[in-house]
Design brief:
The complex is a heterodimer of chains A (86) and B (100).
Chain A lengths: L1 H27 L3 H26 L4 H23 L2
Helix pairs in contact in A: 1-2, 2-3
Chain B lengths: L1 H26 L3 H25 L4 H31 L10
Helix pairs in contact in B: 1-2, 2-3
Classes of the chains: A mainly alpha (86), B mainly alpha (100).
Chain lengths: 86, 100
């Protein structure tokens, strides 16, 4: 269990690296959709990150945070399609 | 010990999928292919990481909760993918084809 914590931390760092790489799409676009897709990617990666941190820190409540984040991600997509993408 | 290795292997595989998802988002040519990589590859990656965490879980409820999260994320990203691709088609964005 304790030996695994370092490995989990490594996984967290790698996930963060993929999120940072995805930021290139947010900056570069070229269109609004591409930026939105990067946000969708952050939603999935973010859930993975939060679940890993919940496990490392042994904070049960963070799992609920992950649930809320995934709901917010889909709400962002709905709002984008309905309102921001003419 | 064996379980630790199993968790490590599952999570490493999950990372590979997440990496593939990011590479696809950066390198694929149009909105449909990018949607495909963001919603498919990343959900498999998340699933593998969740399997890895479930191997190490302390209670049955923890495992159930992890899989509930995965299920919700899959339903959510499927819905988002359908909405975005339908809207893209309605706007007349044509799917990319190899230049012929």
């Amino acid at each position: 269990m304790t030996g695994m914590t370092g490995f989990y931390a490594l996984v967290v760092i790698c996930l963060l690296a993929t999120v940072v790489a995805g930021l290139v799409r947010v900056i570069g676009g070229p269109t609004r959709v591409d930026r939105m897709l990067a946000a969708q990617l952050f939603g999935t990666s973010g859930v993975a990150l939060i679940l890993l941190i919940a496990h490392i820190e042994e904070v049960e409540g963070l799992v609920d945070v992950a649930l809320v984040l995934s709901l917010l991600t889909v709400l962002a997509a709905v709002a984008f399609v309905r309102r921001a993408w003419e | 010990m064996v379980l630790d290795w199993l968790a490590a292997i599952l999570m490493t595989l999950g990372l590979v999928f997440f990496l593939a998802g990011t590479v696809g988002l950066l390198r694929f040519p149009d909105v449909y292919t990018r949607l495909h990589t963001v919603t498919k590859a990343d959900n498999v990656g998340l699933g593998l990481i969740i399997f890895g965490l479930a191997v190490d879980a302390q209670s049955v409820w923890e495992v159930v909760e992890l899989f509930l999260v995965w299920g919700l994320v899959m339903v959510a990203s499927t819905t988002a993918a359908h909405l975005i691709s339908r809207r893209a088609l309605a706007q007349g964005i044509t799917p990319w084809k190899e230049s012929s």
